[in-house]
Write a structure and sequence with these properties.
- The chain has about 250 residues and is α+β, with helices and mostly antiparallel strands.
- It folds into 2 domains: about 10-55 and about 70-125, TATA-Binding Protein (2-Layer Sandwich), CATH 3.30.310; about 130-210 and about 215-245, TBP-like.
- The protein is built from 4 helices and 9 strands.
- Strand 7 (about 170-175) and strand 8 form a beta hairpin.
- The longest helix has 20 residues, at about 220-235.
- The two termini are about 15 Å apart.
Amino acid sequence: MQPLSPYTKPSITEAIIELQAKISSEVALSTLEDIQRSVESEYPLCEQMMSLEAGVQQGEGDSLEATASQSCIGYRFWSKDRKQMFQARLDGFSFHRLAPYEGWETFRDEARRLWNIYQGSVNPKIISRVAVRYINKLDLPLPVNDFKDYLRTVPEISPDLPQGLSDYFMQVKIPQKDLNGMLVLNEAIIPVQRDDVVSVVLDINLSAYVELSANEDEYWKFLEQLRVRKNEIFEACITDNTRRLLK
């Protein structure tokens, strides 16, 4: 694995910081909606977040009836250009940045600013989960004779089968024991408008369940650890050929 350094052609299409929190059941949805007032000039677009619950209940006689209901669990607030969005939910907060990604410090600082507004409104007591997720799109030049030329984590095909891949989706879950966390790594070929590349999504979702006071800064320090680990995971998944594409 090569030393970590910024890439001039970053592959990040979306970056996410998420904090799940334990908040009082007395917090109303209107409180979450009112958060927008503090940032309406920057995040003027508001969308409800709905949760769908489906089930089965006993009907007349021996029959079973399907049931479904939905409820609002929070709000999404978008910037006018839809490059940035944050969620204010009854169970926590997340901040999303779409391409172009402008670097960790800018991304983290905006997430923290918005979190402070959320925190001041709902007064969470405990942070129960922290996560960073980075979705990367790698455009690999055709022809690709072997995905292992660009990726170190790929599906292993039996040598008794043809080795050419026209499509694939792979998910692996790898415990991060030292962080008491979990890496969920998704990798897939996605449709592309160009005929000179094949596009592969490398989705790195790194999270940990914690029990940290919301009134201290420990969870932000933990997020820094997750960010470092995320970078290590990305570098571990690609080859020097891919690095040259990103330089």
